[in-house]
Amino acid sequence: MGKYILGLDAGNTVIKAILFDLSGRELAQSARDGRSSMPKPGHVERDLDELWRNAVAVIGHCIAEAGVDAGEVAAVGCAGHGNGLYALDREGAPLIGIQSLDTRAVGIVAEWAERHVGDRTYVHCLQRPWAAQTPTLLAWLKRFSPALFARIGTVFLCKDFVVNRLTGVRGSDTSDMSGCGLLRMLDRRYEPDLLAAYGLDDCMERLPPVLESADIAGHVTEEVAALTGLHAGRGRVVRRRRQRRRFRRDQDRCRLGHRRHLEHQPGHHRQADPRPFDLHAVDLRS
Question: What domain range is 177 assigned to?
Answer without folding.
Answer: 4-263+270-283
